[in-house]
Design brief:
CATH architecture of the largest domain: 3-Layer(aba) Sandwich
Mean pLDDT: 96
Number of domains: 2
CATH class of the largest domain: Alpha Beta
Structural class: alpha/beta
Bound molecules: pyridoxal-5'-phosphate
CATH topology of the largest domain: Aspartate Aminotransferase, domain 2
Helix content: 25-40%
Number of helices: 13
Largest sheet: 7 strands, mixed
Shape: globular
Order of helices and strands: EHHEHEHEHEHEHEEHHEEHEHHEH
CATH superfamily of the largest domain: Type I PLP-dependent aspartate aminotransferase-like (Major domain)
Length: about 375
Protein backbone atom coordinates (compact mmCIF):
# COMPACT_ATOMS: atom_id res chain seq x y z
CA UNK A 1 0.00 0.00 0.00
CA UNK A 2 1.18 3.49 -0.81
CA UNK A 3 -0.20 5.68 1.97
CA UNK A 4 -0.56 9.28 0.84
CA UNK A 5 -3.09 10.39 3.43
CA UNK A 6 -0.83 11.79 6.14
CA UNK A 7 -2.98 14.92 6.52
CA UNK A 8 -5.74 12.57 7.71
CA UNK A 9 -3.52 10.79 10.19
CA UNK A 10 0.03 9.50 10.58
CA UNK A 11 1.36 6.22 11.94
CA UNK A 12 2.53 6.41 15.55
CA UNK A 13 6.29 6.72 15.81
CA UNK A 14 7.70 3.66 17.58
CA UNK A 15 9.80 5.97 19.79
CA UNK A 16 6.66 7.83 20.89
CA UNK A 17 4.93 4.59 21.85
CA UNK A 18 8.02 3.29 23.64
CA UNK A 19 8.31 6.50 25.65
CA UNK A 20 4.61 6.31 26.56
CA UNK A 21 4.59 2.62 27.48
CA UNK A 22 5.90 2.91 31.08
CA UNK A 23 3.07 5.36 31.88
CA UNK A 24 0.50 2.86 30.68
CA UNK A 25 1.99 0.07 32.74
CA UNK A 26 4.19 0.27 35.87
CA UNK A 27 4.21 4.07 36.14
CA UNK A 28 0.43 4.34 35.96
CA UNK A 29 0.01 6.94 38.70
CA UNK A 30 -2.42 9.84 38.65
CA UNK A 31 -0.37 13.02 38.22
CA UNK A 32 -2.50 14.72 40.88
CA UNK A 33 -1.87 12.05 43.56
CA UNK A 34 0.45 13.09 46.37
CA UNK A 35 2.20 9.71 46.77
CA UNK A 36 5.41 8.74 45.06
CA UNK A 37 3.76 7.02 42.07
CA UNK A 38 1.70 10.15 41.44
CA UNK A 39 4.71 12.40 41.84
CA UNK A 40 6.62 10.43 39.20
CA UNK A 41 3.65 10.75 36.79
CA UNK A 42 3.53 14.48 37.52
CA UNK A 43 7.25 14.83 36.82
CA UNK A 44 6.84 13.02 33.49
CA UNK A 45 3.88 15.22 32.60
CA UNK A 46 5.74 18.43 33.39
CA UNK A 47 8.80 17.24 31.49
CA UNK A 48 6.57 16.52 28.46
CA UNK A 49 4.96 19.94 28.83
CA UNK A 50 8.36 21.65 28.90
CA UNK A 51 9.42 19.81 25.73
CA UNK A 52 6.19 20.64 23.86
CA UNK A 53 6.47 24.26 25.00
CA UNK A 54 10.07 24.49 23.78
CA UNK A 55 8.99 22.99 20.45
CA UNK A 56 6.66 25.94 19.76
CA UNK A 57 8.67 28.62 21.59
CA UNK A 58 6.23 28.89 24.52
CA UNK A 59 6.60 28.80 28.30
CA UNK A 60 5.54 25.51 29.92
CA UNK A 61 2.74 27.26 31.82
CA UNK A 62 1.28 28.35 28.47
CA UNK A 63 0.76 24.79 27.22
CA UNK A 64 -2.28 22.64 28.01
CA UNK A 65 -2.60 19.05 26.85
CA UNK A 66 -5.90 18.37 25.08
CA UNK A 67 -7.60 15.47 23.33
CA UNK A 68 -6.54 16.82 19.91
CA UNK A 69 -7.07 19.48 17.30
CA UNK A 70 -10.85 19.64 17.63
CA UNK A 71 -10.70 20.37 21.35
CA UNK A 72 -7.91 22.90 20.85
CA UNK A 73 -9.94 24.70 18.19
CA UNK A 74 -13.03 24.71 20.43
CA UNK A 75 -10.93 26.21 23.24
CA UNK A 76 -9.34 28.67 20.83
CA UNK A 77 -12.67 29.88 19.51
CA UNK A 78 -15.32 29.35 22.20
CA UNK A 79 -12.96 29.63 25.16
CA UNK A 80 -11.35 32.88 24.02
CA UNK A 81 -14.49 34.53 22.66
CA UNK A 82 -16.54 33.92 25.80
CA UNK A 83 -13.77 35.18 28.06
CA UNK A 84 -13.18 38.39 26.10
CA UNK A 85 -15.56 41.12 27.29
CA UNK A 86 -14.74 43.26 24.24
CA UNK A 87 -17.80 42.18 22.24
CA UNK A 88 -19.61 39.46 20.40
CA UNK A 89 -18.08 39.65 16.93
CA UNK A 90 -15.74 37.12 15.31
CA UNK A 91 -13.72 37.25 12.10
CA UNK A 92 -12.85 34.02 10.29
CA UNK A 93 -12.93 32.33 6.86
CA UNK A 94 -15.09 29.56 5.42
CA UNK A 95 -11.96 27.59 4.49
CA UNK A 96 -11.30 26.82 8.17
CA UNK A 97 -11.61 23.30 9.53
CA UNK A 98 -15.06 22.24 10.76
CA UNK A 99 -13.76 22.35 14.34
CA UNK A 100 -13.45 26.13 13.97
CA UNK A 101 -16.52 26.70 11.79
CA UNK A 102 -18.81 24.68 14.06
CA UNK A 103 -17.41 26.35 17.20
CA UNK A 104 -18.30 29.70 15.65
CA UNK A 105 -21.76 28.37 14.73
CA UNK A 106 -22.23 27.38 18.37
CA UNK A 107 -21.32 30.90 19.52
CA UNK A 108 -23.79 32.38 17.02
CA UNK A 109 -26.57 29.99 17.98
CA UNK A 110 -26.22 29.91 21.74
CA UNK A 111 -24.45 33.14 22.67
CA UNK A 112 -25.66 35.60 20.04
CA UNK A 113 -22.27 36.23 18.39
CA UNK A 114 -22.00 37.74 14.90
CA UNK A 115 -19.41 36.58 12.41
CA UNK A 116 -17.76 38.20 9.42
CA UNK A 117 -16.40 35.64 6.94
CA UNK A 118 -13.52 37.22 5.03
CA UNK A 119 -13.45 36.62 1.27
CA UNK A 120 -11.16 33.85 0.02
CA UNK A 121 -9.40 33.79 -3.36
CA UNK A 122 -9.55 30.77 -5.66
CA UNK A 123 -6.24 29.44 -4.30
CA UNK A 124 -7.47 29.74 -0.69
CA UNK A 125 -5.46 32.87 0.09
CA UNK A 126 -6.87 35.76 2.09
CA UNK A 127 -5.98 39.38 1.46
CA UNK A 128 -4.84 40.98 4.75
CA UNK A 129 -6.73 44.12 3.79
CA UNK A 130 -9.95 42.04 3.87
CA UNK A 131 -9.13 41.06 7.47
CA UNK A 132 -8.47 44.71 8.34
CA UNK A 133 -11.81 45.73 6.80
CA UNK A 134 -13.71 43.02 8.71
CA UNK A 135 -12.48 44.18 12.13
CA UNK A 136 -14.95 46.12 14.29
CA UNK A 137 -14.90 47.94 17.63
CA UNK A 138 -16.60 44.87 19.16
CA UNK A 139 -14.47 42.13 17.51
CA UNK A 140 -13.52 39.73 20.28
CA UNK A 141 -11.60 37.22 18.19
CA UNK A 142 -10.01 36.58 14.82
CA UNK A 143 -9.35 32.92 14.03
CA UNK A 144 -7.49 31.92 10.86
CA UNK A 145 -5.49 28.75 10.27
CA UNK A 146 -1.78 28.44 9.50
CA UNK A 147 -2.05 25.80 6.74
CA UNK A 148 -5.20 24.52 5.11
CA UNK A 149 -5.84 20.78 5.44
CA UNK A 150 -7.45 20.28 2.01
CA UNK A 151 -5.57 22.52 -0.41
CA UNK A 152 -2.47 23.40 1.60
CA UNK A 153 -2.77 27.20 1.52
CA UNK A 154 -0.41 28.84 4.03
CA UNK A 155 -1.67 32.08 5.56
CA UNK A 156 0.44 35.03 6.75
CA UNK A 157 -0.72 34.49 10.31
CA UNK A 158 1.78 36.88 11.92
CA UNK A 159 0.37 39.68 9.78
CA UNK A 160 -3.24 38.72 10.57
CA UNK A 161 -2.45 38.61 14.32
CA UNK A 162 -0.92 42.06 14.16
CA UNK A 163 -4.06 43.43 12.49
CA UNK A 164 -6.30 41.83 15.13
CA UNK A 165 -4.19 43.22 17.95
CA UNK A 166 -4.30 46.66 16.31
CA UNK A 167 -7.97 46.93 17.30
CA UNK A 168 -7.60 45.02 20.57
CA UNK A 169 -9.05 41.69 19.36
CA UNK A 170 -7.54 38.31 20.24
CA UNK A 171 -6.07 35.96 17.64
CA UNK A 172 -6.23 32.15 17.49
CA UNK A 173 -4.69 29.91 14.85
CA UNK A 174 -5.28 26.26 14.01
CA UNK A 175 -1.76 24.93 13.39
CA UNK A 176 -2.77 21.26 13.02
CA UNK A 177 -1.49 20.90 9.44
CA UNK A 178 1.47 23.22 9.88
CA UNK A 179 3.33 21.36 12.62
CA UNK A 180 6.32 19.55 11.19
CA UNK A 181 6.06 21.34 7.85
CA UNK A 182 7.10 24.86 8.74
CA UNK A 183 8.56 26.56 11.79
CA UNK A 184 5.78 27.15 14.30
CA UNK A 185 6.96 29.62 16.92
CA UNK A 186 4.28 31.38 18.94
CA UNK A 187 6.53 34.37 19.57
CA UNK A 188 7.23 34.92 15.87
CA UNK A 189 3.57 34.37 15.00
CA UNK A 190 2.39 36.74 17.74
CA UNK A 191 -0.77 34.70 18.37
CA UNK A 192 -2.76 34.56 21.61
CA UNK A 193 -3.76 30.93 21.16
CA UNK A 194 -2.71 28.06 18.91
CA UNK A 195 -3.93 24.50 18.65
CA UNK A 196 -2.39 21.35 17.22
CA UNK A 197 -2.99 17.63 17.14
CA UNK A 198 -0.80 14.63 17.96
CA UNK A 199 -2.07 12.17 15.37
CA UNK A 200 -0.96 14.35 12.47
CA UNK A 201 2.66 14.26 13.66
CA UNK A 202 3.51 10.76 14.82
CA UNK A 203 1.75 10.73 18.21
CA UNK A 204 -1.40 8.69 18.91
CA UNK A 205 -4.94 9.86 18.24
CA UNK A 206 -6.59 11.53 21.20
CA UNK A 207 -3.86 13.92 22.27
CA UNK A 208 -2.98 17.45 21.28
CA UNK A 209 -1.75 20.70 22.73
CA UNK A 210 -3.21 24.14 23.18
CA UNK A 211 -1.07 27.22 23.59
CA UNK A 212 -2.56 30.15 25.50
CA UNK A 213 -0.41 33.26 25.83
CA UNK A 214 0.21 34.05 29.46
CA UNK A 215 -2.22 36.65 30.80
CA UNK A 216 -4.96 35.85 28.24
CA UNK A 217 -8.23 34.65 29.79
CA UNK A 218 -10.04 31.55 28.52
CA UNK A 219 -13.40 30.10 29.49
CA UNK A 220 -12.83 26.37 30.05
CA UNK A 221 -14.94 23.87 28.14
CA UNK A 222 -14.46 21.10 30.71
CA UNK A 223 -15.23 21.86 34.34
CA UNK A 224 -13.97 19.76 37.22
CA UNK A 225 -10.84 19.31 39.26
CA UNK A 226 -8.95 22.28 37.81
CA UNK A 227 -6.11 20.32 36.21
CA UNK A 228 -4.02 21.90 33.43
CA UNK A 229 -4.01 25.39 35.01
CA UNK A 230 -7.81 25.38 35.23
CA UNK A 231 -7.98 25.43 31.42
CA UNK A 232 -8.90 21.78 31.03
CA UNK A 233 -10.16 19.71 33.92
CA UNK A 234 -9.83 15.93 33.89
CA UNK A 235 -7.17 13.46 34.92
CA UNK A 236 -4.17 14.07 32.70
CA UNK A 237 -3.25 11.57 30.00
CA UNK A 238 0.41 11.32 31.00
CA UNK A 239 1.31 8.55 28.55
CA UNK A 240 -0.04 10.40 25.52
CA UNK A 241 1.51 13.69 26.67
CA UNK A 242 4.88 11.91 26.79
CA UNK A 243 4.21 10.45 23.33
CA UNK A 244 3.36 13.90 21.96
CA UNK A 245 6.55 15.41 23.38
CA UNK A 246 8.60 12.55 21.91
CA UNK A 247 6.98 12.92 18.47
CA UNK A 248 7.63 16.67 18.57
CA UNK A 249 11.26 16.02 19.47
CA UNK A 250 11.64 13.71 16.50
CA UNK A 251 10.33 16.42 14.14
CA UNK A 252 12.59 19.24 15.15
CA UNK A 253 15.41 18.71 12.64
CA UNK A 254 12.87 18.45 9.82
CA UNK A 255 11.17 21.83 9.91
CA UNK A 256 12.70 22.94 6.58
CA UNK A 257 11.31 20.19 4.35
CA UNK A 258 12.91 21.28 1.09
CA UNK A 259 13.13 17.75 -0.23
CA UNK A 260 9.40 17.11 0.32
CA UNK A 261 8.59 20.40 -1.35
CA UNK A 262 10.65 19.37 -4.41
CA UNK A 263 8.96 15.94 -4.50
CA UNK A 264 5.55 17.57 -4.23
CA UNK A 265 6.30 19.95 -7.10
CA UNK A 266 7.61 17.19 -9.34
CA UNK A 267 4.50 15.14 -8.53
CA UNK A 268 2.14 18.05 -9.31
CA UNK A 269 3.92 18.76 -12.60
CA UNK A 270 3.76 15.12 -13.65
CA UNK A 271 0.08 14.74 -12.71
CA UNK A 272 -0.92 17.88 -14.59
CA UNK A 273 1.05 16.70 -17.64
CA UNK A 274 -0.10 13.09 -17.74
CA UNK A 275 -3.47 12.69 -16.01
CA UNK A 276 -6.51 13.66 -18.06
CA UNK A 277 -8.84 16.30 -16.54
CA UNK A 278 -6.51 17.01 -13.59
CA UNK A 279 -6.44 20.59 -12.32
CA UNK A 280 -4.52 21.73 -9.25
CA UNK A 281 -6.42 23.30 -6.35
CA UNK A 282 -4.73 25.67 -3.92
CA UNK A 283 -1.63 27.79 -4.46
CA UNK A 284 1.77 26.91 -5.90
CA UNK A 285 5.26 27.37 -4.45
CA UNK A 286 6.01 28.62 -0.97
CA UNK A 287 2.43 29.57 -0.16
CA UNK A 288 1.49 25.89 -0.23
CA UNK A 289 2.18 23.29 2.47
CA UNK A 290 5.04 21.04 1.30
CA UNK A 291 2.92 18.03 2.26
CA UNK A 292 -0.23 18.59 0.22
CA UNK A 293 -1.02 18.11 -3.48
CA UNK A 294 -4.73 18.41 -4.30
CA UNK A 295 -6.62 18.18 -7.56
CA UNK A 296 -10.07 18.26 -9.09
CA UNK A 297 -11.18 16.23 -12.11
CA UNK A 298 -13.97 17.94 -14.03
CA UNK A 299 -16.88 15.76 -15.04
CA UNK A 300 -16.11 12.61 -13.03
CA UNK A 301 -16.71 11.50 -9.45
CA UNK A 302 -13.90 12.12 -6.96
CA UNK A 303 -15.17 9.24 -4.82
CA UNK A 304 -14.97 6.88 -7.81
CA UNK A 305 -11.36 7.97 -8.45
CA UNK A 306 -10.59 7.31 -4.78
CA UNK A 307 -12.00 3.79 -4.99
CA UNK A 308 -10.04 3.06 -8.16
CA UNK A 309 -6.87 4.40 -6.59
CA UNK A 310 -7.36 2.10 -3.63
CA UNK A 311 -7.64 -0.84 -6.01
CA UNK A 312 -4.23 0.21 -7.31
CA UNK A 313 -2.93 0.22 -3.74
CA UNK A 314 -2.84 4.00 -3.33
CA UNK A 315 -4.64 5.41 -0.30
CA UNK A 316 -5.67 9.07 -0.33
CA UNK A 317 -8.61 11.30 0.70
CA UNK A 318 -11.23 13.37 -0.99
CA UNK A 319 -10.78 16.76 0.64
CA UNK A 320 -11.08 16.65 4.39
CA UNK A 321 -10.86 13.24 6.05
CA UNK A 322 -12.73 14.61 9.03
CA UNK A 323 -15.78 15.01 6.81
CA UNK A 324 -15.28 11.69 5.08
CA UNK A 325 -18.08 9.25 4.66
CA UNK A 326 -20.21 12.03 3.23
CA UNK A 327 -20.20 12.70 -0.48
CA UNK A 328 -20.64 16.45 0.01
CA UNK A 329 -18.66 18.91 -2.10
CA UNK A 330 -15.59 20.16 -0.26
CA UNK A 331 -16.62 23.19 1.82
CA UNK A 332 -13.11 24.56 1.31
CA UNK A 333 -13.40 24.52 -2.49
CA UNK A 334 -16.90 26.00 -2.31
CA UNK A 335 -15.45 28.83 -0.20
CA UNK A 336 -12.76 29.31 -2.88
CA UNK A 337 -15.50 29.85 -5.47
CA UNK A 338 -15.56 26.40 -7.13
CA UNK A 339 -18.89 25.19 -8.49
CA UNK A 340 -20.40 22.37 -6.35
CA UNK A 341 -20.02 19.78 -9.18
CA UNK A 342 -16.29 20.49 -9.42
CA UNK A 343 -15.82 20.81 -5.64
CA UNK A 344 -17.21 17.26 -5.37
CA UNK A 345 -14.35 15.84 -7.44
CA UNK A 346 -11.52 16.80 -5.11
CA UNK A 347 -8.72 14.34 -4.35
CA UNK A 348 -5.96 15.11 -1.86
CA UNK A 349 -2.54 13.46 -1.72
CA UNK A 350 -0.68 14.22 1.50
CA UNK A 351 2.96 13.30 1.95
CA UNK A 352 5.14 12.38 4.92
CA UNK A 353 8.79 13.21 5.52
CA UNK A 354 9.52 9.68 4.31
CA UNK A 355 7.50 9.69 1.06
CA UNK A 356 9.76 8.72 -1.84
CA UNK A 357 9.96 9.77 -5.49
CA UNK A 358 9.26 6.17 -6.45
CA UNK A 359 6.00 6.08 -4.44
CA UNK A 360 4.87 9.29 -6.11
CA UNK A 361 5.81 7.92 -9.52
CA UNK A 362 3.60 4.87 -8.86
CA UNK A 363 0.83 7.07 -7.48
CA UNK A 364 0.88 9.20 -10.65
CA UNK A 365 0.57 6.12 -12.81
CA UNK A 366 -2.26 4.76 -10.62
CA UNK A 367 -4.04 8.12 -10.79
CA UNK A 368 -3.80 8.20 -14.57
CA UNK A 369 -5.20 4.68 -14.83
CA UNK A 370 -7.94 5.45 -12.27
CA UNK A 371 -9.11 8.64 -13.98
CA UNK A 372 -9.14 6.90 -17.35
CA UNK A 373 -11.15 3.99 -15.92
CA UNK A 374 -13.69 6.28 -14.24
CA UNK A 375 -13.97 8.45 -17.37
CA UNK A 376 -14.60 5.45 -19.59
CA UNK A 377 -17.37 4.27 -17.26
CA UNK A 378 -18.93 7.73 -17.62
CA UNK A 379 -19.03 8.28 -13.82
N1 LIG B 1 -7.82 21.25 12.23
C1 LIG B 1 -7.31 20.81 11.08
C2 LIG B 1 -6.72 21.79 10.11
C3 LIG B 1 -7.32 19.44 10.79
O1 LIG B 1 -6.81 19.00 9.64
C4 LIG B 1 -7.89 18.55 11.73
C5 LIG B 1 -8.01 17.10 11.42
O2 LIG B 1 -8.08 16.72 10.27
C6 LIG B 1 -8.40 19.07 12.93
C7 LIG B 1 -8.35 20.43 13.14
C8 LIG B 1 -8.99 18.17 13.98
O3 LIG B 1 -7.98 17.52 14.69
P1 LIG B 1 -8.30 16.18 15.54
O4 LIG B 1 -8.54 15.10 14.55
O5 LIG B 1 -7.08 15.96 16.37
O6 LIG B 1 -9.48 16.49 16.39
Amino acid sequence: MIYLDHAATTPVLPAALEAAWPYLTGEFGNASSTHELGARASTALEDARARVAAFIGARPTEVTFTSGGTEGDNLGVIGLALANPRGKHIVSAKTEHEAVIESIAFLERVHGFEVTWVPVARDGSIDPSAVATALRHDTALVTLMLANNEIGTIHPVAHFAELAHGVGALFHTDAVQAIGWMPVNVGDLGVDALSFSGHKMGAPKGVGAYYLRSGVAVEPLLHGGGQEFDVRSGTENVAWAVALATAAGALEPQVEPESTRALRDAFITKVLATVPRAALTGPTGDMRSPAIASFVFAGISGEAVLLQLEEHGVVVSSGSACAAGRDDPSHVLLACGYAPELAQTSVRFSLSHHTTAEELERATEALRASVEAVSSLGR
